[in-house]
Amino acid sequence: MEQSPQIKTATTPFEKMQTTDQKNINKAADLNRSYIAPEIARQRLRTIEALDIKSGEHILDIGCGTGFLTYEMALIVGDEGRIQAIDISDPMIDHTLDRCRDLSQVSAKVGDVCNLNFEDNSFDAITCTQVLLYVENIDDALAEMHRVLKPGGRIAVLETDWRGVVMSSNYPEITETIMKTWDKTVASPNLPPRLSKLLKQKAFKAIRTEAIPLLNTSFSKNSFSVNTVPWLSKNAYRMDAITKEDGQVWVEDLVELGRTDAYFFCLNRFLFIAIK
Asked: CA 275 → CA 10, 53, 152, 203, 269, distances in Å?
């Protein structure tokens, strides 16, 4: 969910209306740029380390996005393993298949986390990255993941709570409005504080949680935040929470803070590891 490689592009007029197909294509392209950020690369590495992925394992990647994590896990499981990637978006699947076109151990298809089309006890491990906040019925999603996971299998769920963002801005009121609007955009905001309890209720065990900070103290076009803040501003405009002018002023202020070495952004993501 996030992005644009040049933050200045967000100062152009926002468009409220796009076709659904075009929105999905644009989102896939934006996410592809965001996933290149060094802090997101470290996030993937930590997810892989925490899952302790081994050669030959069968892994389900839920919400594969444009396939970065899928690709990296496929290299670890090797030719004897299998990575099944799913995403709700066709353009995301297209990106993943293209990225992994030389890896025969990778399959990717459109899928729904609340209705996984796989047999019981199919996978040694499951990753679910930035998916559940979009899901209204978290119980169904976790139940499905528990069903398709082998006994003793591991699960890694990564989620964000945007209420915890800390960032520099000369327009704190606009910042607060933009962040509150994001909560109205997703089905399950403020999920991390509730997720351990929900995992326990679905019989997951040995649950552990760690924070993965996304920290940017300089203004780099390759950073997560610089790719994300224009999207957040546009989202608030589309939701009629701010005016186009407010959004442009807010983003331009962040650009100026970057020019004067006063830029700061920090957001925690939370990695939940559990066992069936």
From this structure: 42, 13, 6, 9, 20
CATH number, domain of 52, equals: 3.40.50.150
Place of tokens 């209720």: 201
Q: Is pLDDT at 6 greater than 50 in this prediction? A: no
Residue 255: phi and psi, rounded to 5, are -60, -45
170 Cα distance to chain centroid: 28
The reported pLDDT for the residue numbered 33 is 60
In contact, 100 and 88? CB cutoff 8 Å: no
**Pairing, β 149-160 against β 123-129:** parallel
Quote the number of domains for the chain. 1
Nearest to 108 by CA among 87, 123, 128, 80: 87
Range of the domain at 182: 7-275
Percentage of the chain exceeding pLDDT 90: 82
Residue 236: its pLDDT value, please?
Answer: 96
Tokens of 60: 């389900």
User: 């803040």: which residue's tokens?
Assistant: 229
Going from the C-alpha of 219 to that of each of 11, 224, 259, 261, the distances in angstroms are: 16, 10, 8, 8
pLDDT of residue 172: 96
